[in-house]
Amino acid sequence: MGTPAVAVSAVSSHPTKKSDPLSETAEEMREYLQDLAEEKKFTGTALVVRHGKVLVRAAAGAADEEKRIPNRPDTVFRIASVTKQFTSMLVLKLRDRGLLGLDDPVCPYLSPAYIKTCPQAWKPITIREIVTHTSGIPDIQELPDFYAKLSQPTTTRKLIQRFVNKPLDFKPGTSWKYSSSGYILAGAIIQAVTREPYGTVLHDEITGPLRLRHTGYSRRNPPAGYARGYFTVGSPALPINGSQAFSATGIYANADDIVRWDRSFGAHLVAPPATVKQAFTPQAKCPSNGCLNLPSSAYAFGWLVDQLHGHRLRYHPGLLQGYAASNMYLPDDDIAVVVLSNVQDTNTNDIARHLATMVLKSCE
Question: pLDDT by residue (tens digit) across 209-218?
Answer without folding.
Answer: 999 999 999 9
